[in-house]
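I have been asked to look over a protein record a colleague put together. Alongside the sequence sits a line of tokens, each denoting a local backbone shape. Please read both lines and tell me whether the tokens look consistent with the sequence. I do not need a full report, just your reasoning and any doubts. I have pasted the whole thing underneath without changing anything.
>
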Amino acid sequence: MTRNLRDRFFAARRLTVDLVKPLSDADATVQSMPDASPAKWHLAHVTWFLESFILRDHVPGYRAFDDSFAYLFNSYYEAEGARHSRLARGLITRPSLAQILEYRSHVEAAIEAHWNNLPDSALQLIELGIHHEQQHQELLLTDILHLFAQNPTYPAYWPEPVLRDATAAETPALGWIDGPSGIQSIGHGDTGFAFDCEGPRHDILLQPFALADRTVTNGEWMQFMNDGGYSEPRHWLSDGWAWVQREGIAAPLYWQQDADGQWLAFGLDGLRSIEASAPVTHISLYEADAYASWAGARLPTEAEWEVMAASHNATEGNQLDATGAVRPFASHAASMFGNVWQWTGSAYRPYPGFKAAEGAVGEYNGKFMSGQFVLRGGSCATPRGHVRASYRNFFYPHQRWQFTGLRLAQDV
């Protein structure tokens, strides 16, 4: 088990570095919006996490690589003291990208040197550190995409186009699958890793329902747009309609029309024609909810989604395996996982009996259980093996720079 943990740890660390190899120092420094972080900051933050909670706390005599890094690269851990403003992360021009990579190597070497003497509590934090790193791998890609989308030349992070499923050119008709009703159990109950917010496992009562057998496609979203979806207030939540009006929203993020009126979408492989049969992505909860209303359906609850996903293999689907441009692509495979995160209509709140862990790591999830909604299933930018049926992602309802989409639900 320890050897497997060691292999997974160093594999995750290598992948993060591989993801930034196409970037210049300038690419890695700039912050495109408050919700995003510079690539350089991601690289350093996940390393600070390991240095602080493993080396500092479990290796006697360890000395920090640079005392200023605790201030620069702490994210939101109040117990760890003062930190640099999130809004100003893009102003950290120094240390350089090369120095951050040196920092990563230093911390990895120290963990390797002391591995055999780490207590079980530190090895548990290594496991948490792997999953923390994987979360930031996805954020790296989505933040790079948002950054490059601000450049009027639309540079490609990775020029080679994403490989498509040649058998999935035609969109199959939307089908419905009845879900189990009555008293069901949700939440993590296995012995493997899970974040604290995934438990405790508990019972919940489900009324009869059905889920769509696939996510909504770009072509279907265009029908919504052509039918005045963004201009008809009756489909929108009040906050969503105010957001549409205030921000001038008329299409998913990264969509634009060319001189001939054809829709294009910017991705990590550049600006390309929209694939009608691929899942729609980069939509907010507000947009997902409005589409569901327009379609005569609704968003699933997270409990409905989880009980349906429990029988699916979470390692299947279009997920991140290696460096390169990623996009959702059309597929006839009936997987609940990958391609796009799926908005649910469930607020991100604690499960019955939830208790945050002691110490700074207890700030990891629990304190964010306010004003956000749950997404399920992972995306094309989620490292394979990171998600499971009980995994709860969460974002604010207006956010859409992640690979977010939707799967419809209905009462039966």
Observations:
- Residues 120-149 form the longest helix (30 residues).
- The chain has a mean pLDDT of 94.
